[in-house]
Predict the structure.
Amino acid sequence: MKTGFFFDETTAAVETTAAGTTAAGGGFGNWPVIKQIAWLFGLLMQGIFVVLAAMGVINGMVPLCIIVFTIITKMLLLPLTIKQQKFGKINALMTPEIQALQKKYEGRRDQASMARMQAEQQAIYDKYGTSMSAGCLPSLIQLPFLFGLYPVIYNMPEYVPQMANYTAEQINKMYNLFGINLLEAPGWKIQPAIIIPLLAGILSFFSSKMMQPKVKNNNKDANPAGTSMKMMNYTMPFISLFFCISLPAFLGLYWVVQSLVMIAQQYFINRHFDKIPIEDLIKANIEKTNKKRAKKGLPPLNEKAMMNTKKLNGAPEKTVEEVADAKEKRDAGIRQSTDYYNKRAGSSSGSLAAKANMVRDYNEKHK
């Protein structure tokens, strides 16, 4: 499964249902597990609010709380993001082989062919020390946390009871950001608040773009998942733009800050993985997988069997240097054998008797 695509779909689902998180009904903020996660994030938001209040901050307190809250929560989820991007880098190398395998069995739906295809596909995953669920698991773990974030942002007074100690005028000052009232939706009109949804759309595009690994694929039509990811890249910014225009501006501010943090994280993650050879990532993956298999009493992955999967996409099993070296050794062996039999045959090497002796000597040598 394509990691970036799944993450974008997850984010889209959370953003699409964010409007359901209202003060009256609570939305998905009252779901089991999500409710407990939102409660924990509420404690974090409450702690940030108390610290800022102790510092005497009133004007713009809510935007400051949202900024600090977003940075902390994104840093908490950073290990999952790194794991997700690590799989994405390996998946970019693995995708051409998977596509070649799919092309090999295209149109063959009998049980035997499907079984062979699954076995060969598993061999490809084993070669890279990963699995089909490796890309989905970090996203699935992040999903409840993403759902737990929005109720706290959207329903901040419910999770921060200290806000009840302030007057309505002070609350309005808390939601003020450079003259923009974050309690109001920007709407479809030209005003300073429109900058928030515009930034949300633009930054959403760049953050999604940076998260996607580069896949070497000459046949773009054969990669429907890649096409879907590209479509998501262009539709997500418009989804963010629409909701940030229609919903209170403080929610749009959260999306802006979140995208900025994601872009910063992704920049350093990409730089980190660019310095690591892909072979080292694969080796570490295989070692980690073998440790898990050992705990389950399973044998380690067969390296020789894994290397044979290079044949799946028509690639040579040996490198160019290895093939040239083998050819040179073979030619040297032929010359040596020819010289040996010519010497044994003597000067009458062209006679019938000499040729018969050569056949006899060859049979004796290779008996």
Summary: The chain is about 70% helix and 0% strand. Residues 3-282 form one domain. Residues 1-26, 218-222, 304-321 have pLDDT under 50 and may be disordered. The longest strand covers residues 176-177.
